[in-house]
């Protein structure tokens, strides 16, 4: 049910053609654009939701997932170096743009996205045992990030939980997709350790930056994302594949004995089957006791 949108909108609202742009007056253009946008929003009241409507410019180097329409949006501007290039190797592209796409996809199943069903309705659509398992597993992630400190400030593991879940999910989804493609294109052979190292390095390069001390403090206090260094070290430290290909000693910071796993491989779960049997038996008992 998740809709995928890439590049730019298929169509633009007609409202954007209803005001003049003055090449000599930036402020006036901004005010007119804001006014036109508000008028257009009001015109949409009581109308069906447009699942193809973008809330991000095609020229923005970013991507997002919208729970309100159950859709993923990837602007054209992010589909270029260093995130993607037709000249890059597959492992570099999968470590780059594919982890970004996987991140946004995972938002549909993070601590907020999980509350929206396939039709974008906000409701409790998971079985209670599944919700309890989710909370228990996501607490591991929250606790992990609570232990990170930068610029004498501690990361808020709970406040950044949704983005941390998405970072971990994006890395895992992208790696699985890369391995699947490689095996299909190379006669069933798995990628080499060197290829996988390139994948992880590309992922890390997505978040290369340089910030001042005060900026880092402000980021920890106000941003729903973890600081960039932890957007890299957090996910890879929980990856068995990363530890394997880089030879990280067991029990080291980048290869802890206990790792956080929220979403496992998408195979039928024996536990889920047990829950469903219990639910069916409970319903049967209710019928028999009426």
Structural commentary:
Helix content is 48%, strand content 6%. It is mostly helical. The strands form two sheets. It has a three-stranded mixed sheet, covered by helices on one side. It has a two-stranded antiparallel ribbon with strand order 4-5. The model has no long low-confidence stretch (mean pLDDT 91).
In short:
With 290 residues, this protein is mostly helical.
Order of helices and strands: EHEEHHEEHHHHHH
| Helix content, binned percent | 40-55%
- The end-to-end distance, rounded to whole angstroms, is 38 Å
Q: Structural class, please?
A: mainly alpha
* Total count of strands: 5
Name the strands of the widest sheet in spatial order: 1-3-2
Global Rg = 22 Å
Shape: globular
Overall pLDDT metric: 91
